[in-house]
Specification:
With about 300 residues, the chain is an all-alpha fold. It folds into 2 domains: about 70 residues, no CATH class; about 200 residues, no CATH class. α9 runs antiparallel to α10 and α10 runs antiparallel to α11. About 15% of the residues have low confidence.
């Protein structure tokens, strides 16, 4: 304690001497170093603290810049982020595609600017396999009901279904995104979705066809067409409601033509799947069994034919 009191006394004495030499000087802290402006400097610890804060802020800024750097599109890490979703998010987006409520934009309320490729990839894969399997099962059941129907396994339908579904879910969103980008240059108020958001909208809109294809196993034609029309109406409504916030800023003819094309392509997809994968098999050509010739009793047979019949 005595040493501390002595140190405080010396500091006070030095400050008094400085004030006597420079009457205009002022003290603001315990430190006592005269600045070039004639003032006694403030505590040096505050200046060191400010430098530490500046260094910490620079470190944080560098860290944020490192986090914001996105990997290149040729790297695996770039595509890995689009598969980083959990089951609850996928189920929520499927529910949003099945129940398109007015005023609830699928992209803003369900995707939340975080599109994924996990859901669209597996929805398309499931739909392709379900189409091929149910198409073959339909023909097997038809053969059991009618033996004259000839059936052989049609494995090529798996390839046809996969190519058709994946091309539709990839090329149509690409064309739509390109058209909206072109219209954005004409109508500056338009704000189109990104390409991945457009793919995500189309991918989730195909989910409703998976249970519909399974219901097509019911061998009632009018019921199959009813299920198909309902699924098409529900899926098309989801697409139109998701795209309407983007195209409504365009002119009415352009918006109407775009939405009509979207619905038309969706209708062609559903109609093509129904007619190709669930077409009836051709009936076997059955040769009628030979019947014995009925000859009238008055018909006279040749003598040679009668002798050959008698010997037999």
């Amino acid at each position: 304690m005595a040493a501390a009191d002595e140190l405080t006394f010396h500091e006070f004495q030095e400050a008094t001497d400085l004030l006597a030499e420079t009457p205009d000087a002022s003290t603001t802290s315990r430190s006592d170093q005269l600045t070039p402006q004639g003032h006694v400097s403030v505590d040096l610890g505050d200046s060191y603290g400010a430098e530490d804060e500046v260094e910490e802020e620079s470190d944080k800024a560098a860290l944020l810049q490192g986090e914001q750097q996105q990997p290149g599109f040729w790297t695996f890490a770039y595509y890995q982020s689009f598969f980083d979703v959990d089951t609850s998010q996928v189920l929520d987006r499927i529910k949003g595609s099945l129940l398109p409520w007015p005023g609830h934009n699928f992209v803003r309320h369900r995707l939340r600017n975080r599109p994924d490729l996990y859901g669209p990839f597996w929805i398309c894969a499931t739909l392709a396999f379900v189409l091929a399997i149910t198409g073959n099962l339909t023909l097997v059941l038809a053969q059991r009901r009618d033996p004259t129907i000839h059936y052989s396994p049609q494995f090529h339908k798996v390839t046809v279904a996969s190519v058709t579904i994946y091309c539709y879910a990839g090329l149509v969103p690409l064309a739509l995104w390109g058209f909206l980008q072109w219209r954005k240059g004409i109508r500056e108020r338009m704000g189109p979705y990104t390409f991945l958001e457009t793919v995500c909208v189309y991918g989730y809109s195909l989910f409703v066809f998976i249970p519909t294809v399974i219901l097509w196993l019911i061998p009632v034609p009018w019921l199959q067409w009813l299920f198909g029309v309902l699924a098409l109406a529900l899926s098309s409504t989801g697409l139109v409601s998701a795209l309407w916030p983007v195209v409504r800023e365009d002119t009415r003819p352009a918006a109407g033509a775009l939405l009509s094309t979207v619905v038309l392509l969706h209708t062609l997809l559903a109609l093509g799947c129904k007619l190709y994968f669930f077409q009836p098999l051709p009936v076997e050509h059955v040769v009628p069994p030979p019947h014995a010739m009925d000859l009238p009793p008055t018909t006279l047979l040749p003598s040679t034919l009668s002798r050959s019949l008698a010997t037999t």
